[in-house]
Amino acid sequence: MPTHSETSAADIPAQTVRSGHVFSFSQEGASFLLDGEPFQIRSGEMHPCRIPAEYWQHRILMAKAMGMNCIALYVMWNYHETSPGTFDFRTGNRDIEAFIRLCQREAMWVLLRPGPYICGEWDLGGIPAYLLSYPDIQLRTDSATDPRYMSAVARYIGELSPRIEPLLANNGGPILMIQIENEFGSYASNPPYLEEIRQLWLHAGIQGPFYTEDGIRQLEQNRTNVTGGAIALSNGDAEQIAAVRREFPAVPAMAGEVYPGWLTHWGDETFKGSSVDLSITLDALMQQKLSFNLYVIHGGTSFGFYAGANVDAASGEYQPDITSYDYAAPISEQGVATSRYMQYRRVIARYLSTRLPDIPDPVPTISREGGQALMPERYASIWDNLPAALPIAQTVDPLPFERYGQAFGFALYRTKLHGYRGGVLDLRNVHDYATVFVGEQYVGGVSRALVPEHCARPLNVTHHAPLTVPPVSSSTHSEVLLDILVEGMGRVNYGYPMIDRKGIVEPVTLQDAQGSSNTLTNWEVFPLPMDTAFIANLRAVCTNPRKAGLFFKAILPLDTIGDTYLDMSNWTKGVVWVNGHNLGRYWNIGPQKRLYCPAPWLRPGDNEVIIFDLHQLEAGPVELARTLS
């Protein structure tokens, strides 16, 4: 039951009042209705996949204590269907039903945002990478245009819908509305596509209510609302709600994404969004009793390889997102009530008739006792842990990860150079970061992302330019190996460049000293997804410690566990695992230098820290810190 907040039955989930509620829209479209009475949605967005399941309740209660009565959440399709037809809605933080039930237990309503596309600074906007194995695939379109895409969407909704149906408000659950796609007006105008998705839900027995989410200009231009559906506005406020009500008078509107912060890319000078102040916006929404959703009230972390990317509209530059999704949100990445949280809580409380719940205690944090840093030791080499190469018939020409059935991680592309004497290697469109070796020698790298002038720069890494490769000592032999180790970073999650395959996506050429250019063929390809099983089965072998691509290991003994951050300031570029959990990517160009490690992933006693760095031959210290910065 609610404590200290609202006394109205409209704010109590179904099971605490009766078996079901009726959530609807007023006849003239002026308001949302719950059991026939006007209802203000005060929602805070958080994503279960970005939060350890052990912290779900804490974060929900944090939102409630700030004055919210609702939680909005994305369902990331590719987090649940990792290969065609193989779904996981049960393990770890993938149990969406458990999260929604927990919202209900804590007297919170739910806005469900299942996509199939969600954006969210999440790899490929939540669409599974396996669809990119089709060279001519079209995404976010109707079945008449590309039946392969819509067939996959139908499979996803068919799997999700029976899990969702019992959790709808009219069935006694907390779900008020289901969103159809996401910000489609920023992508295209295709009413049949949106209607086709709506029909999939209807055929699954879910009658809504539905809603859409768009920027006001895109909505007005592309008319991307759906039949009978409410309208939510990205970057919305009271004035925009009024404007939309004039344009679309039949259905209610809400501020569907009110931004308390913003996203950050690798190479940005600082974390974005910290200067945003929503006090005036929130005050107007509360005063007029308008519905809203804070995107995000708590961002969490894009653990593993799931952080997405953008392409800058002006420059065309690829911009991968950092691992942290702190977003300068009112509730920080580690679940702390920020100064903005306290400020917004006061604004909201002024308009409520009863006192808000007490703020939950913060999760305990730890740093290294005595300030002593971890000092990892060289543990293994990627070169001594290569899997079997793919069949040569698949690799005459290098192909992207997706063509080999790989979604994330790294891949090694290897070919033999005959009569090598140095030259110019054209690998300028690699997706997304490559280190290049001739024989056993590192000769340079290629970064798809621009490394700004203010950032640290690894040795001889080019950007949108051919790589000059020198002769090496082994080149006197008749042939020498060319190794290109490619890291796939985040897939683009917004706009037209979304079909963003990883690995080597175009032919590679080598121009010799005489100016003769040869296209390189007959590759060996070694998939390196760097998944849990791969890390668990690493062989502690390092034949050549002077060839970059090394794993380092440290043991972290703990008497008491708590949240912590691993400070990677003394490292270059790579990935960290703690007790087999992938904390995400680090990169010395910043601005993120610390990776969040939640307490549930630690244990009393010894904890194993594994670091894979693309460049370093020697270990650096790793400090433990209590905050992101």
From TrEMBL:
Name under which the protein is recorded: Beta-galactosidase
Gene Ontology molecular function terms on file: beta-galactosidase activity
Entry's family note: Belongs to the glycosyl hydrolase 35 family.
InterPro entries: B-gal_1-like, BetaGal1-like_ABD1, BetaGal_gal-bd, Galactose-bd-like_sf, GH, Gly_Hdrlase_35_cat, Glyco_hydro_35_CS, Glycoside_Hdrlase_35
Boundaries of every Beta-galactosidase galactose-binding domain copy: 551-607
Positions of the Beta-galactosidase 1-like first all-beta domain: 398-528
Organism: Paraburkholderia ribeironis
Domain Glycoside hydrolase 35 catalytic residue range list: 31-350
Its EC number(s): 3.2.1.23
Active site: E183, E257
UniProt record, GO biological process: carbohydrate metabolic process
Keyword terms of this UniProt record: Glycosidase, Hydrolase
Coiled-coil ranges (or none): none
